[in-house]
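quick q for whoever's on today - can somebody do inverse folding on this one?? i tried earlier but teh output was garbage lol. tokens:
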């Protein structure tokens, strides 16, 4: 169906709420959070996240459609092809991303165990993992 790839929509939405609650309650207000922008519709991020996003694939006011498509494609590569923290951190620095929200629907989730060996998630549940990336430590320690 158009709302979910499986019958886990309710569980996945509750897991999203928990992950975004963690971010909103525990991380600095000035951090920039990024989910996979290639998702056609991400209702939980709009409902639950109270931090700035770097880019959202659904809306971008004042950005021409071709430029938005280009930016979404470049940012989505983090969730689709990059497999180690050196590559991911480089992209996060380039795009000013401090925190990544990876879901079980992202291709990067398949490499979750490998990523966790190199860096523990800030928060994780059955469907969502929240990781620091890029310049997070510099942002987090600022007053």
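ok took a stab at it. sequence:
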């Amino acid at each position: 169906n158009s709302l979910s790839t499986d019958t886990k929509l309710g569980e996945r939405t509750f897991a999203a709420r928990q992950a975004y609650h963690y971010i909103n309650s525990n991380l600095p207000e000035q951090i920039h959070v990024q989910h996979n922008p290639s998702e056609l519709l991400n209702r939980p991020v709009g409902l639950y996240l109270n931090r700035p996003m770097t880019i959202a694939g659904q809306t971008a006011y004042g950005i021409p459609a071709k430029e938005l498509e280009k930016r979404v494609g470049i940012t989505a590569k983090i969730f689709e092809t990059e497999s180690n923290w050196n590559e991911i951190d480089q992209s996060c620095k380039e795009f000013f991303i401090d925190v990544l929200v990876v879901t079980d629907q992202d291709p990067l989730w398949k490499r979750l165990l490998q990523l966790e060996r190199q860096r523990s998630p800030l928060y994780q549940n059955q469907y969502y993992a929240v990781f620091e990336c890029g310049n997070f430590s510099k942002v987090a320690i600022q007053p």
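fwiw The first helix runs from residue 9 to 26. also The first strand starts at residue 33 and ends at 34. so keep that in mind when u check it
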